[in-house]
C-alpha cells in the first residue's frame, strides 16, 4: 500500500522542463542564411512572375507583340491602330518592287487593290499571347492582314512579262456552219494567275522584292478531251433537229440554231465545260416568241401635267437555262426525233414600278418651247428626234448624252435630208434641223438647274433660239451632255405641234432659275458670198457678235449662286447661189 501511494504522489508532482540544447552561433547564422535564400526563391518564382504577368497582360495588346517591326505592346486597340497606321503610312503607299521572271519592275499598290487592313491586323495582335518573359527575348512578331485584287495584280504583272511569256492555245470546239472544228491545246509559259494574289500578299512589306516565277501553263482539257467532245457531243448535236416541248406548244430547233447556241469554249485555265447560249438560241429560233410572253418594263406617262408610273408586266419564257443539262444530254444522242420537255418560267421586267416610284419624280421642274416654220423637211427630223427623246429617265448622278440616247440620224430611222451647218455652209444632210431639239433640251436643262457637261452653241446666230443659251449637235463629234446632280431622278418629256417643239423635265424642284444677259459687243456685219454648188442654200446673212448670259440660282427668292456663259457668233454670210456679177467694162 505504501508503494502504491508513493507512486501516485510521484505522478502528481510537477515535472521539471526539459533542458533545451545549446545551439552554437555559427549554426544559428547558417540557418538564417537558408531562410533568406528561401524567401528570395519564393519571391522570384511566385511574386515576380505574377507582377510580370500583370504588366504584360494589362492592356489590349500584350507586351512583346510586334507587327512589321512596330512595337504594339502595352497599347489599347485604338492606340495600336493609330500607331501602326502612322508608322507604316509611307511604306504602304510606296511602289512595290517586283520581279516577273527575270524582269524587275514596280507595282502601284493602289492600282492593284493592295491594302494593309490595319484594324484586322491589330485584332490579330490582340489575340496573340506571348509568354511572360517573351519580351526579354525580343517578343513575338504577328503577321499583318494584307489583301490584294488578284485579277488586277495579274493584269499589272502581265505588262512586264514580255518575251518571257508565250500564251497557251486554249482548246475549243467551234462550228463552221454545221461542221465541228477542233482547236487543240498547246502549252505556254507565263504567270500562274491563281497564285499571284497570295504571293504578293505574303511578300509585300516583308521582302525588298516580291518574285513572281514564270511557269508552264498547261491547259486542263487535253487533245483527247477535245476529240471526245467532237465525237460524243458536237457531231451528234448538229446531226438532227431538236424539239423543245413546252406547255404552250412545241418548238423545233434546227441544226443551224444548235450550232449557233452550243458553246464548247474553255475557261481561262483551258477547261472546256459545255454550255448553251440561250440568248443566241432564242435569236436563231424566232418560233420561241409564240410560246413566250415578253415582259414590259414600268414606264412614266404624263397625265394632266404630272408624271404617273405605269406598272410593269412580267413575262414568261421557256426555261431553257433550267433545262440546259437535259438539252445537252439529248444532243449527245442520235435518236430521232430528239425531244426535251421544258417548263415555263417567270421573266420579271427589268424595271419595276417600285423602282421608278423611288426616284422622286413627282412634279414639273422646267419646260421650254421653241418655234419653227411649218411644212419644212427639217420638221420631220425635229419630230423624229423628239419622239426618240420622249420618256428618257436620268438617274441621280448619271450623265445623259443626247447622241448616245438618240443615236446616229439615218434615213432608216425616219430622218430626211434637210439644211444644216457644215464647214460654215448650209448643206443638206440626214437629220438637218435636229439642233432645234438640242437647243430646246438645253434650255430645259438650263432652267432645271442641272449640271452642264458639254454643249456648244451654233457657229451662226439664229433668232429662233435665245442667244448663247442654245446648242447644236453633230453625230458623233459634237454632243449635248448634262449631269443629273440632283438627289432624285428626272424624266424628259417632249411634245411637238406643226410649228413648235417642247421639252419638259419632271423631278423634284430644287431651284428657281432665271437668265440675265449682258450687251452684244464686237458686232461684225455679214459678208456676201456667191456659191456655185448643186445643193446651195441661200441666206440673208446675219451679223456676228459676242454676248454673255448668266444662269442665276435662287431659293425662296434669294440668290444662291450664278454661272456665266459666253459665246462669239461668226457673221453668217449672205450666201447667193450663182455666178458673181461681172464687173462693168470701163
UniProtKB/TrEMBL annotation:
UniProt region (Disordered), positions on chain: 1-20
Transmembrane helix: is it a keyword of this entry?
Answer: yes
The transmembrane residues are 38-58
For this UniProt record, give its keywords in alphabetical order, as a comma-separated list.
Membrane, Transmembrane, Transmembrane helix
Which residue intervals define the domain YoaR-like putative peptidoglycan binding in the entry? 257-333
Which Pfam families does this UniProt record tie to the protein? PG_binding_4 (PF12229), VanW (PF04294)
The protein's matches in PANTHER family, at most eight in alphabetical order, are given as: EXPORTED PROTEIN, EXPORTED PROTEIN-RELATED
Q: What is this protein called?
A: VanW family protein
Amino acid at each position: 500500500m505504501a508503494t502504491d501511494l508513493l507512486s501516485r504522489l510521484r505522478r502528481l508532482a510537477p515535472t521539471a522542463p526539459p533542458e533545451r540544447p545549446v545551439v552554437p552561433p555559427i549554426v544559428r547564422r547558417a540557418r538564417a542564411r537558408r531562410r533568406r535564400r528561401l524567401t528570395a526563391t519564393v519571391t522570384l518564382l511566385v511574386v515576380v512572375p505574377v507582377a510580370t504577368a500583370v504588366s504584360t497582360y494589362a492592356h489590349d495588346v500584350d507586351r512583346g507583340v510586334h507587327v512589321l517591326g512596330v512595337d504594339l505592346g502595352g497599347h489599347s486597340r485604338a492606340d495600336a491602330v493609330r500607331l501602326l497606321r502612322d508608322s507604316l503610312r509611307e511604306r504602304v503607299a510606296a511602289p512595290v518592287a517586283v520581279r516577273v521572271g527575270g524582269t524587275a519592275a514596280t507595282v502601284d499598290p493602289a492600282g492593284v487593290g493592295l491594302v494593309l487592313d490595319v484594324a484586322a491586323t491589330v485584332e490579330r495582335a490582340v489575340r496573340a499571347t506571348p509568354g511572360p518573359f517573351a519580351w526579354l527575348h525580343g517578343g513575338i512578331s504577328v503577321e499583318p492582314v494584307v489583301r490584294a485584287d488578284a485579277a488586277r495584280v495579274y493584269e499589272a504583272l502581265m505588262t512586264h512579262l514580255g518575251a518571257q511569256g508565250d500564251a497557251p492555245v486554249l482548246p475549243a470546239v467551234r462550228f463552221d456552219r454545221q461542221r465541228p472544228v477542233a482547236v487543240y491545246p498547246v502549252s505556254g509559259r507565263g504567270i500562274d494567275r491563281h497564285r499571284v494574289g497570295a504571293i504578293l500578299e505574303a511578300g509585300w512589306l516583308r521582302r525588298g522584292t516580291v518574285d513572281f516565277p514564270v511557269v508552264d501553263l498547261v491547259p486542263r482539257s487535253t487533245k483527247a478531251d477535245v476529240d471526245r467532245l467532237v465525237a460524243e457531243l458536237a457531231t451528234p448535236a448538229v446531226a438532227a433537229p431538236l424539239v423543245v416541248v413546252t406547255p404552250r406548244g412545241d418548238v423545233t430547233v434546227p441544226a443551224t440554231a444548235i450550232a449557233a447556241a452550243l458553246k464548247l469554249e474553255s475557261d481561262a485555265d483551258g477547261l472546256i465545260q459545255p454550255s448553251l447560249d440561250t440568248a443566241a438560241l432564242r435569236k436563231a429560233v424566232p418560233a420561241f416568241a409564240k410560246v413566250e410572253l415578253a415582259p414590259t418594263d414600268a414606264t412614266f406617262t404624263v397625265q394632266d401635267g404630272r408624271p404617273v408610273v405605269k406598272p410593269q408586266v412580267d413575262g414568261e419564257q421557256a426555261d431553257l437555262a433550267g433545262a440546259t443539262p437535259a438539252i445537252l444530254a439529248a444532243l449527245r444522242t442520235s435518236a430521232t426525233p430528239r425531244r426535251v420537255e421544258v417548263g415555263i418560267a417567270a421573266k420579271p421586267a427589268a424595271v419595276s414600278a417600285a423602282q421608278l416610284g423611288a426616284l422622286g419624280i413627282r412634279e414639273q421642274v422646267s419646260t421650254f418651247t421653241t418655234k419653227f416654220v411649218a411644212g419644212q423637211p427639217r420638221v420631220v427630223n425635229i419630230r423624229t428626234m423628239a419622239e426618240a427623246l420622249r420618256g428618257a429617265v436620268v438617274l441621280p448622278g448619271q450623265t445623259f448624252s443626247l447622241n448616245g440616247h438618240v443615236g446616229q440620224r439615218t434615213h432608216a430611222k425616219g430622218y430626211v435630208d434637210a439644211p444644216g451647218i457644215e464647214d460654215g455652209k448650209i448643206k443638206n444632210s440626214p437629220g438637218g434641223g435636229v439642233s432645234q431639239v438640242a437647243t430646246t433640251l438645253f434650255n430645259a436643262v438650263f432652267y432645271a438647274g442641272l449640271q452642264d457637261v458639254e454643249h456648244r452653241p451654233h457657229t451662226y446666230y439664229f433668232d429662233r433660239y435665245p442667244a448663247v443659251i442654245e446648242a447644236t449637235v453633230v453625230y458623233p463629234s459634237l454632243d449635248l451632255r448634262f449631269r443629273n446632280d440632283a438627289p432624285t431622278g428626272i424624266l424628259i418629256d417632249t411634245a411637238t405641234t406643226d410649228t413648235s417643239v417642247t421639252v419638259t423635265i419632271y423631278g423634284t424642284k430644287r431651284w428657281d432659275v432665271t437668265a440675265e444677259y449682258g450687251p452684244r459687243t464686237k458686232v461684225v456685219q455679214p459678208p456676201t458670198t456667191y456659191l456655185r454648188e448643186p445643193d446651195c442654200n441661200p441666206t440673208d446673212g446675219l451679223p456676228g457678235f459676242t454676248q454673255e448670259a448668266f444662269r442665276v440660282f435662287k431659293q425662296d427668292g434669294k440668290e444662291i449662286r450664278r454661272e456665266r456663259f459666253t459665246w462669239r457668233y461668226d457673221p453668217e454670210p449672205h450666201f447667193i447661189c450663182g455666178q458673181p456679177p461681172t464687173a462693168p467694162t470701163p
